[in-house]
Write a structure and sequence with these properties.
Length: 332
């Protein structure tokens, strides 16, 4: 029986070889099929390797993010000052009521009706400049006296109806420039404007305009190496308005529940700044990332050096002129 089966197998194998030998096309088909199978197996192997490499890279990225402790986040807010208007004043009052909290370490320069416009005005008996050490001062002077390491700015509510979008951004830059003149190493962080209650906006103080303004603030922060903290989104409802539960006056001012959100948001922001995952890292501007051309390389002789100095002085004069402003009336 076994001999018969063996004989049949030999006969079948011989027929196959005979068929292949007698028909070259059949031989080509068998070879092509084998090659295709080998290529398919190779492609599958390469795909598997690529997926493994991607997974490894993703794991590596996650592993490379530093773990920031709660104590490090607490320490982040030491030597920090928050500057702003009546909404910021509300946050200051909220923080003062918290016990044994990192919020107690935050210093404030806030006042009702304060704005980037009137922050640039002279200090007078009627001005709304925040008080520090018993008297009103320009905020850049107070910040310098505080030896602040970080400054968080919250403005716009009392500015948009006066200076508009672009004008308010220019005033923002001018105020920050004065702060940096007195405190060159201080970090600047801009907090977005928050929204009004649905339908409560007046003039340019409407939520669509505020959204546009916040986009300009983001661009400004990115270009200048300033941090940007989005406080508007966490406080908004599904329609993009200030959530009713977070509004205390039917307009723009905020409740205790809103300031609970502020507390969570600024801690998350601090963590992102510390572990490097933020989209807006404070301290690195797009201009700083570009190598500067050496002045020495540009100066080929004494005459050219003199011309360069004259040109530089002319530019400084232009900056001073563009930084000028006219007094305007602020609103509540």
């Amino acid at each position: 029986m076994k001999k018969k089966l063996l004989a049949n197998n030999l006969i079948t194998t011989g027929m196959i070889f005979a068929l292949v030998a007698s028909n070259p096309a059949t031989s080509y088909v068998f070879a092509a099929e084998n090659t295709t199978l080998e290529q398919s197996a190779s492609t599958t192997t390469q795909t598997d390797m690529t997926l493994e490499m991607q997974e490894t890279a993703t794991t590596q990225e996650v592993t490379d993010i530093p773990v920031i402790s709660e104590e490090e986040i607490d320490a982040y807010f030491k030597d920090t000052v928050f500057v702003g208007d009546s909404i910021m004043l509300g946050f200051r009052n909220y923080c003062m009521k918290q016990k044994d909290s990192f919020l107690n370490d935050i210093q404030f320069l806030a006042a009702g009706s304060f704005s980037v416009n009137n922050a640039l005005w002279d200090v007078t008996a009627k001005s709304v400049h925040p008080v520090y050490k018993g008297q009103k001062r320009q905020v850049w002077e107070s910040i310098s006296m505080m030896n602040a390491k970080k400054v968080f700015l919250f403005f716009g509510m009392n500015d948009l109806n006066i200076s508009g979008l672009e004008g308010t951004c220019e005033k923002y830059k001018e105020l920050i420039s004065k702060i940096k003149e007195k405190s060159p190493d201080v970090e600047i962080h801009i907090i977005s404007m928050t929204y009004t209650l649905k339908g409560a906006g007046k003039g340019k103080l409407k939520n669509d305009t505020i959204r546009e303004f916040n986009e300009l603030l983001q661009e400004m922060a990115s270009e200048n190496g300033w941090g940007f903290l989005d406080m508007a989104t966490p406080l908004s409802d599904e329609n993009g308005d200030l959530k009713a539960a977070y509004c205390s006056d039917g307009f723009v001012h905020q409740s205790r529940a809103a300031y609970d959100v502020w507390t969570t948001v600024i801690r998350d922001y601090a963590r992102a700044q510390l572990n490097g995952t933020t989209e807006y890292p404070a301290g690195t501007s797009e201009a700083e990332e570009c190598p500067e051309t050496s002045t020495t390389e540009l100066q080929t002789d004494e005459s050219e050096d003199t011309n360069n100095k004259n040109t530089t002085q002319g530019k400084k004069t232009e900056v001073r002129l563009s930084a000028g402003f006219s007094a305007q009336t602020t609103t509540e």
